[in-house]
Amino acid sequence: MARVTTGGHRAAFDPLKHSQPLGGALAFLGLARCIPMLHGAQGCSAFAKALLTRHFREPIPLQSSAINDVSAVLGSSESLLGALDTINERQRPDIIGVLTTGLTEVTEEDMFGVLGASKYAPGSRGPLVVAVSTPDFHGGLSDGWSAALRGIVAAVPATGVTVPGRAAVLVGPTLTAVDIDEIADLVRAFGLDPVVVPDLSGSLDGHLAANWSPVTTGGTTLDALLGLAGCEVVVAVGSAAATAAGELAVKAGAPLIAHDHLSGLAVTDLLVTDLIRHTGATAPEAVRRWRRRLADGLMDSHFVLGGAKVALALEPDQLVAVGSLFYDVGAEIVTAVSPTNADVLRQAPWEEVVVGDFVDLAERAAAAGAELVVASSHGADAAAEAGAAHLTMGFPVYDRMGAQLRATSGYRGSLHLLVDAANRLLEHRESHRPSRHPAAAAPTGAAAAERLEQDEHLEELAC
């Protein structure tokens, strides 16, 4: 059990934290034919859209109610409803996610009351409008994702009918597209039909769509969402999805299988055991084979990562997931920095987690002699200051390709993460190793002539 402390600075100089509206928007981007809309000033959505576009390298359908100084004072209900009308008439989405910002939260505008008295009230014809409170002056990306997921689950009607084999799989914000595919395949291997919510593996996986679309192309469809309460089991991966998954399990009258993360052998074994107990099926050979590969990979990577000093700066779920896997293989977690406080941080197997920023990461990593820094692209300076290797992970990643195609979960994803980390550390150690033969630098003058004569002699011997 780790203790959670705060950094030594009263202000964030190099922030690690992202806002709740950004996290909420990211969750809605995992729904098919959806447009998230930030209810606030135009700049609120512009910054979020820039980060999302750089990370995913895809066009991001994100809109704004574009509140100005006048509507902020006199009331923004007309801006809200006008923006919804424009989106509905021009883009024709199936789902619109409405997220508050600091501006609308501070003015205490009753967004839910305005929507409830309009043509966008729950149960009305037209697109499904899901409103979520996400103040950007409180919490962070994971909190916004969790709030949006709870709003989505609240919009799911209770059917009273269970569809045999249907499994609702609710996931957290730190899983990549390949992670989601891996988890869905694992659930599918036991004869279940997984419905992933939100499903970024279908919408922001880097696929090339046939035509440009103003709404998301891929993800959890509206029909699948409306039938979610008919599931026979609910699976939650990530603490940010746990609350929503519990509420869905109550609504569906279904058992809940919840795990904070799936990075590592033991935690993936627990999910497999839960699925075996629920379905009565045995683990398929393909699952067993990847388990054996991970077991072997843990032993192999131990010779590289064992004893290595690792510094982490990630979202809470991912921080615990990645750190636990490295801890299992024998690495020393010398510092772990989270942007926000969360209960899952206390489940970390090392001593301390710091709620802070990249300044805390840089100072602590350098002081502890970290060899490997695991953080987003924003952590490059901290890694350079510590003289450590930088394994780019988290959000945003804009200086590496294929962020959504890197796996970290399940047997296969855990193995890939270990290999990536071990190779990155090996490359760093090799590049910083002093030359074994300093005199073997490119010779000049008489030394060059002597070297040439030796080479010619060796060639004659070889012939």
Automatic annotation (TrEMBL):
In what pathway does it function? Cofactor biosynthesis; Fe-Mo cofactor biosynthesis
Q: Which organism is it from?
A: Candidatus Protofrankia datiscae
Q: Which family does it belong to?
A: Belongs to the NifD/NifK/NifE/NifN family.
Return one Gene Ontology term, BP aspect.
protein-containing complex assembly
Please describe what this protein does. This protein may play a role in the biosynthesis of the prosthetic group of nitrogenase (FeMo cofactor).
Q: Cross-referenced InterPro entries, in alphabetical order? A: ChlB/BchB/BchZ, Nase/OxRdtase_comp1, Nase_comp1_CS, Nase_Mo-Fe_CF
Keywords of this entry: Nitrogen fixation, Oxidoreductase
Nitrogenase/oxidoreductase component domain: from which residue to which, for each copy? 19-425
Q: Which GO terms describe its molecular function?
A: nitrogenase activity
Under the heading Gene3D superfamilies, the entry gives: Nitrogenase molybdenum iron protein domain (3.40.50.1980)
- Does Oxidoreductase count among this protein's keywords? yes
Record-given protein name = Nitrogenase iron-molybdenum cofactor biosynthesis protein NifN
